[in-house]
Amino acid sequence: MLKLDAILLFMFRQVKERLKKEVAAMKNQFPGFRPGLVVLQVSLDLSLIILARIINLDSILKADPTDFLKVLRRIVAVNENPAVHGLIVQLPLDSINPINTEKVTNAVAPEKDVDGLTSINAGKLSRGDLGDCFIPCTPNGCMDDAEISCSCQSKPIGELAREVDLFSEEVEPYGRSRAKIRLDALKRMEKQPDGKYVVVTGITSTPLGEGKHTTALGLAQALGAHLNINTFACVQEPSPGSFFGARGIAVGGGYSQIIPLEEFAFGMISHVYILQALFDLLVPLRKGQRSVSPAQLNRLKKLGIEKSDPLTGTEIRCFVQLDIDPDIATDSGSLENEIMAILSLSSSEEEMQQRLAKIVVATNKSGDPVTTEDLNVSGPLAMLLKDALKPVLMQTVEGTPVFLHTSPLADIAQGSPSVLADKLALKMVGSKGFVVTVSGHGADIGLEKFFNIKCRYSGLRPDVVVIVATVRTLKMHGGAPPVQAGLPLPKEYSHEVQLERGCCHLKRQVENAQAFGLPVIVAVNKFSCDTDTELELVCGQARQAGAFDAVQCTNWSEGGAGALALAEAVQRAAKLPGQFRFLYDTQIPAADKLRTVAQKMYGAKDIALSPKSIEKLVLYTKQGFENLPVCIAKTHLSLSNDPMLKGVPTNFMLPITDIKANVGAGFLCCLTESVSFILLYL
Length: 682
Known about the structure:
By secondary structure, this protein is an alpha/beta fold. Helix 15 packs antiparallel against helix 16. It is an enzyme of class 6 (ligase).
């Protein structure tokens, strides 16, 4: 603490010296100039007198908070005084007398509003007119996620494990703040009743994200640390690359995040890296070249082939084993994605090994699937993944327990934390507790896959759906231009008309969630630039759309206390009788399943199958895979397949360009023209 104080004092002195030089230069340019700053104190605070002595403040005006008109007259007098260049109004933190803070703030002349809080200065700031307004210094005083994480002291992982009733032999510590949990714990608790199951999703977001994970962790903290209810949060593991992305690392932020930040953000015990070892087992690579063993070289020579890399198409057909058709083989991106999906969907080591054995890596010339079991590698694959099947236990800044486990993508897979993490957490919280989990992207993509794929295989049925929305994103759906990281919001984001238009998208996503028969709560993630009128408009529109409730959340800045209204709404909704239902029956033809999702979730007119996708459907029907659920891979930036179409697009065709059978994971991955298999884990 002393070290931090010394650093702050050093920075203060640097700023003070810089300002002295700037004032001296201005005095040389304008003789007789003297900067004037006035503080109007609408409260009795002795600390302000001490501050005045430190900064050589010349004038402190006082006003009685009970006399509102006198406060305004004081402000007008300072506005009209040419010797005063800046005015700070200090309002009381608490008062028995009501004070109209908005009127007081906007009474200050914009050119003297050094706090930058008047509506005029705020509007200029939001439009990017940075040269013509005062920029509030408050954001510069806000700690970022890394600073908040470093300022928090986490409980020793052994203490946290004991608090959640784990035995020492069930916990494998990794340092002071993390531990893997053995699956023996789930077997020990298998007869215990499950707690309430809450899934957090969102609307179709901007590229910056909307704070689903922050809201989920804030909700868990509100339930656990503030309402004293047994609560667990379950989130996906972040990939190292996401730590540096504009959207954040998908494990919360501000005072609703997992700590220590540095220990999980860079995947020190991440399961992501195991995928590379698995891929090397199936498709060995060395220095960018596939290794060819001496036995394989001898076989090539017997076939009259004197080289090993590269082989022509004819030479490959002569060399391949198991009569494989090289034109129908699984690519590396699809393979790694399927292995991660298997890890996420398996409820036991036995189920994981069964799923790994079903991975189809190719098709032979007779049209039959070739699996990892045929290659005799499913056993080694299971051995490599055995340790990765254990969830990782960590905690939030308020000490709420969290499971981090697996990271399947939300476009070409189900995009949610593991089944094992959810099942274990539900047993640990007991019948009166809550488990908060997250689905990737918007309700049209991640939530649909969470229900139709994850819940279908896990047997779990959620009790409540929470949809996270922001004023910023709804304005984008109402016609405001795209936002970019690091740049001020375009001026269109200061208009309410875009918000009113964009609420049609919120209505559509509420309807998407309601299609599964569960109560829906809308959580409006409040930003500092949002007005009360805007927030009330969004909440009102959400309720009109059929949401059980809609509440504002400030948990980024306030932690669990900022999500108490959401927690109380979730408690009420969880008491309603469940009427969960799937969107489709897996026994119907695959094309009909695709059509159902496209029309009911995206609002498409119909699907358009390419010749290649039709051929794949015929092949998979012959191979017996037609009854698998479907996983549509499309852009997350629009309800349609076109990322530029915002709001609620209508009358569009959803093009299906290719289909991959992820038999081990248990779904048909259907690609639209906006998505391709690109490895995104590392």
